[in-house]
């Protein structure tokens, strides 16, 4: 396999990892493993917004490639598959065509169905409400509100609005519906319902990955992840806060 083809394979693998929410150190380790599998001398520098690769090709030719990457979601299934693929190359290197076929298949792997993710969001809201010592009635209210929040958030995401707006609207819906629930059932605690219903919006993965990147010395990516987590938290809090300031007088 020619060096340029190996770079294409590594770049494809790295792109899938970043778009799936992988940590920077994991992406760099995967790319390094791919190059070692084919005995190619290369240096890789990864940011959440791009991948930089420089490799020594045939006749000591130096090849540099840059890939701009925009956006990401959390898809642990694809991350696990790319990791397994890179490790399998250490055992047996495959041809360029076969490698790209495998990576294209991983890239096109469908996410869990909407109904499955919707059900998971409802269960998460219900369980976290109970964890924060809510009553069963309050947990059920948080469950239904979480289902509504998740549905709206997914639809906004498909339209393509920027992330801050997506979480801001989700926070507003959570606050408004929680106030409405307490209006119907005054014995319920407003704040416990809100806590349960916004748990699916908490940027736990971004915070965890940001801390892990910092521990591995990837300061730039760590700051990016933690800043993203802060902006999401501010967006959700702003949405909930606005609805509380408007509707609290009617509770």
Automatic annotation (TrEMBL):
Primary subcellular site in the record, as a coarse category: membrane
InterPro entries: ThrE-like_N, ThrE_Dicarb/AminoAcid_Exp
GO biological process: succinate transport
UniProt-recorded Gene Ontology molecular function terms: transmembrane transporter activity
Membrane-topology descriptor: Multi-pass membrane protein
Keyword Glycosyltransferase found: no
Protein name in the entry: Threonine/serine exporter-like N-terminal domain-containing protein
Native source species: Clostridium thermosuccinogenes
Lineage summary: Bacteria, Bacillati, Bacillota, Clostridia, Eubacteriales
């Amino acid at each position: 396999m020619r060096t340029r083809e190996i770079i294409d394979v590594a770049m494809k693998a790295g792109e899938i990892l970043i778009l799936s929410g992988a940590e920077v150190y994991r992406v760099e380790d995967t790319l390094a493993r791919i190059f070692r599998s084919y005995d190619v001398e290369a240096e890789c520098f990864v940011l959440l917004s791009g991948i930089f690769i420089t490799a020594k090709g045939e006749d000591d030719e130096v090849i540099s490639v840059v890939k701009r990457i925009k956006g990401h979601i959390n898809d642990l299934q694809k991350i696990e598959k790319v990791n397994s693929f890179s490790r399998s190359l250490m055992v047996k290197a495959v041809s360029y065509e076969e490698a790209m076929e495998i990576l294209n298949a991983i890239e096109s792997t469908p996410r869990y169905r909407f109904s499955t993710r919707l059900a998971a969001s409802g269960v998460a809201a219900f369980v976290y409400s109970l964890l924060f010592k809510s009553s069963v009635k309050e947990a059920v209210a948080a469950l239904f509100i979480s289902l509504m929040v998740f549905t709206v958030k997914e639809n906004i995401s498909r339209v393509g609005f920027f992330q801050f707006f997506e979480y801001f609207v989700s926070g507003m819906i959570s606050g408004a519906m929680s106030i409405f629930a307490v209006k119907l059932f005054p014995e319920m605690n407003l704040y416990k319902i809100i806590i349960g219903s916004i748990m699916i919006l908490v940027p736990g993965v971004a915070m965890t990955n940001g801390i892990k990147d910092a521990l591995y010395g990837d300061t730039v990516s760590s700051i990016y992840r933690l800043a993203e987590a802060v902006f999401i938290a501010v967006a959700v809090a702003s949405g909930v806060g606005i609805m509380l300031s408007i509707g609290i007088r009617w509770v």
